[in-house]
Structures are given as C-alpha cells and as structure tokens.
Amino acid sequence: MRRVGVTMARSPVTVRAAGPGDVATIRELWEGALRRAPIDEQLTDVATVVAQSAASDTQAVIVAEHDGQVAGAAFLLCSIMTPLNREPVVLVVAPHVFPSFQRRGVGTALMDAAARYAEQHGIAHLVTAAGADARDSNRFLARLAFSPVAILRVAPTATVRAKLGGRRGIAAVRLGGSSSRHIDRVLAARRGRRERVVG
Fold first, then answer.
1. In this structure, is the dihedral angle defined by the CA atoms of residues 87, 135, 119 and 113, taken in order, positive or negative?
2. Could you name the domain of life of the organism this protein comes from (predicted)?
C-alpha cells in the first residue's frame, strides 16, 4: 500500500504499510486483541500477519506515524459482510492508537486510509468493531457514520456446553453423515407406522 500523507492539527500524520521492523510496536499496540500467549508467540503471530499482508492484494497491515513515531495501526481485509450476506466489505480490524497519541488525528488517518483501500478495491462498505464499553471509540466511529449492527459475543465452548447441560430434553443434533442417517431412520419409522395404521 502506498504511503498516504495526512496533516492533522499542526502535526503531520502519515500512513504506510507495516514492515518487519514494526512487529514489536504493533504487538504492543494490539496486545489486547491478540491471543493470550507468551510475548514471543504473540510476536510470531504479528510477524506472520505482517508478512502475509505484504504478499497479499486483499489484506494489509497499516501503521500511522505521528512525527515519525508509530502511533497507531489497523489490519485491513477484503471480505464479505457475513457467510450469508455476500456483500463485499473491508474489515478494519483492531484500529488502535497509543493513548499518548490520541486526539491528534491518528485514528482519523487510519480510517481515511481504510476508506481509500476500500475504494481501490471497488468495495462500498467498511466494517469495524469497538468494545461495548469503549465509549470514546464508539463515539468516534459514530461520527464517521458507522452504525451498530450486532453485538459480538464470545464464550468458551466448555462453558456453553455446561450451561446447555440442563436442556438435555431437547433433541440432540449430530453433525456430519450420522445426522442425516438418524433423520432418515426416524422418517422411515414414521412412514412404517402410518402404513400399518392405514392397512
């Protein structure tokens, strides 16, 4: 992605594609968005994403620099709205700014670069997310015309299974071929009963 120069509030903000030398800083910036793991594993994750993005036409890691210092970053991905809604979108993942650089136009520069990236790919919509309790971030996105569409909820699989344990009366659905065979057997048994009643 080409460097995009943006001047904000007396201080220059530029946005460029991330490189290997940015990995440690991006890991620090994205720490809350990365998987819980030792720092060296998080560094490997970020390095992988940066390398894959550099080789891809449909994803990018961008960093915003304020007076030559990395102040923010975001991951851009050409995707679709949902697996069911095939509308093309650019996902703006983890658009984060270091607290010491907030309110200096860094977030605006990142979102401007994301919009330009979408335009370059002929994509009409941007999708991003902010924490439910991140009031400043949500206000910022609302000012840019981002509307809330859904609440993303996450739970450990084991916890969900435990919570569902009291609902065993509901028919279990098995995934894969065994499910269709089970349904076929049930339907055949019902047909057999109906035929015996009619006969």
1. negative
2. Bacteria
Please state the pTM of the whole predicted model: 0.79
pLDDT band at 135 (very low <50, low <70, confident <90, very high): very high
Spatial separation of the C-alpha atoms in residues 77 and 57, rounded to whole Å: 9
Q: What is the pLDDT of residues 159-189, one digit of tens each?
A: 999 999 866 555 555 566 555 566 667 666 6
Closest CA to 86 of 123, 141, 128, 129: 123
Any idea what the Cα angle at residue 166 is, between residues 160 and 171, rounded to 5°? Answer: 90
First to last CA, the chain: 74
Query: Is pLDDT above 80 for 20?
Result: yes
Which H or E element spans position 113?
A: helix 106-120
Residue 31 shares a structural domain with residue 72: yes
Structure tokens, 107:
């977030």
Are both 59 and 86 inside the same structural domain?
Answer: yes
